[in-house]
Design brief:
The chain is α/β, with parallel strands linked by helices. It is built from 11 helices and 10 strands.
């Protein structure tokens, strides 16, 4: 059995305008694109029905499809009960847009899930995710939580409390490597029933710290940059690097995806580096050349 998944690219990773990023995605050999849909011209409130139709036609004219939209609203995800009503409403509008553009996946960060289920923040996140899950299920769609802020085991335990699959998983192996030190292949096997979208990204962890130092959390005071620099010889907690140059074991990661029968997108994300276009092209080639590829 070999990989036969379609390859996606986060169009925003090129750091160009929307249409330029879409065209570049096709140029580097992608089959599909993931697009941020939170602000600017891709925000749901800024896209008229006509603009939505025109955008979908343009993407199709390039021979692309949308693997997912990114609906990450920041601000510690859904931890803040006062901010949640507006965030939940906007998330629903992003999902509406996704379905209209031809995808049923919106990826997002929900915030760091507290270790203690009795924590009021845990309950608030649970309540928000239950509402989002119900809406997504009615749309035959998914809000996909990006891995990284917690181990795969802890994320699964949280998802299991929701009682459905409307909130599922966007699996990012590099986030686990860089932040929790979790094993991506083992994580894929644990979360197999929830994975609806994946990222292909690589990274290195320099310093073992509470994930809240990376992502923040309501009521948590992060360390200063100076304090982190004193602890880390590299002066930082982690670094994202081009595929194959970090600590993600792609042999094991791809094998695990094959093992669970994952058929969705392998979407390349590049959030760092001085030449993202070159790194993304290299990433497409890395996947195509991998022994797991069909």
């Amino acid at each position: 059995m070999a990989l036969s998944n379609k390859i996606g690219v986060i169009a925003d990773s090129f750091r160009l305008g929307l249409r330029e990023g879409l065209a570049k995605s096709r140029e580097v050999g992608a089959d599909g694109v993931q697009i941020y849909a939170v602000k600017g011209e891709m925000a749901p409130e800024n896209l008229s029905p006509q603009a939505r139709s025109e955008l979908r036609r343009y993407i199709e004219s390039l021979g692309l499809e949308i693997s997912a939209l990114c609906g990450d609203l920041g601000g510690h995800g859904f931890q803040d009960k006062d901010a949640n009503p507006a965030k939940i409403e906007k998330s629903k509008r992003i999902l509406d847009l996704a379905v209209e553009l031809g995808t049923n996946v919106v990826t997002t960060h929900i915030g760091v899930v507290p270790q203690d289920p009795g924590d009021p923040v845990y309950a608030e996140m649970q309540r928000a995710c239950e509402e989002l899950a119900d809406y997504a299920t009615r749309m035959n769609a998914y809000f996909a939580i990006e891995t990284g802020p917690e181990t795969a085991a802890h994320l699964k335990a949280f998802l299991d409390t929701l009682g459905g699959k409307g909130v599922s998983v966007n699996f990012d192996p590099a986030n686990l490597v860089m932040v929790t030190g979790d094993d991506p292949a083992a994580g894929v096997r644990l979360l197999k029933d929830y994975i609806v979208h994946t990222h292909v990204k690589d990274g290195i962890r320099y310093l073992e710290l509470d994930p809240r130092e990376v992502y923040g959390s309501v009521g948590y005071e992060k360390m200063s940059r100076e304090a982190i620099a004193r602890l880390s010889p590299e002066g930082r907690i982690y670094r994202e690097v081009p595929l194959g140059e970090g600590k993600v074991d792609f042999d094991a990661y791809f094998a695990a995806l094959q093992e669970i029968g994952y058929k969705g997108y392998l979407t390349i994300e590049r959030e760092a580096g001085s030449d993202p276009a070159a790194d993304i092209r290299q990433a497409v080639e890395f996947i195509r050349r991998h022994p797991a590829w069909e």
